[in-house]
Amino acid sequence: MKLDILAFGAHPDDVELAAGGVMAKEAAAGRKTGIVDLTRGELGSRGTAETRDKEALISSQILGLQIRTNLKFRDGFFLNDEAHQLEVVKMLRKYRPDIVLCNARSDRHPDHGKAGDLVSVACFLAGLVKVETYMDGHQQEPWRPAAVYHYIQDRYLIPDVVVDISEFMDVKMNSIMAFSSQFYNPDIQGPVTPISTPEFLNFLNARSIDFGRQAGVEFAEGFTVERYPGVKSLFDLL
Fold first, then answer.
1. Which of 88, 151, 218, 236 has the fewest CB atoms within 10 Å, i.e. the most exposed one?
2. Which DSSP state fits 168?
3. Which CATH number belongs to the domain containing residue 157 in this structure?
């Protein structure tokens, strides 16, 4: 299946937290969307890999995804090396997305920056004819996405572009709360983490309001770009 947009996350819920609104919006517009989680988040202080698998399935249904898969890299210990790059290349060549979303290049959690760089390198390698990968016994054809955008996570970064998600903010938050083991839920006991408090949910709302204000809309998500998109006229940006 060819996808229009494929998002990668170091952990299940990374995409929901920073780009869930965009994923929901594009799916509602009829575009084919998917998520590839690099790890199962097994080192998380709350929940288990198994519970997060189930939560990711629920969230996928909320976002209207066509596919979601997990590469099962080692949480905390995966590397930006040839072996991991080739596994990401296989996903890119399998789903042939026009747009790729991936983790911030720098963030509080070291896996995030590592994942952002890993996916970026893989997007380049996936277009090289002499990089050979195989799936189901067949050699894959090269494919390079037209654009790679890094979503903004815990650390504030100045976005290069913001996307209006005002009509999909509720869907975004519902997809996040599908990960009930991770975020504030008075009915679930567990250690307090930086993301398990009510204040963190307030932060997510405020971040979306802040990005939205820059574009004159209610809520937005922000992204940084590796290669600036060109337009034929400044009026194309209106």
1. 236
2. G
3. 3.40.50.10320
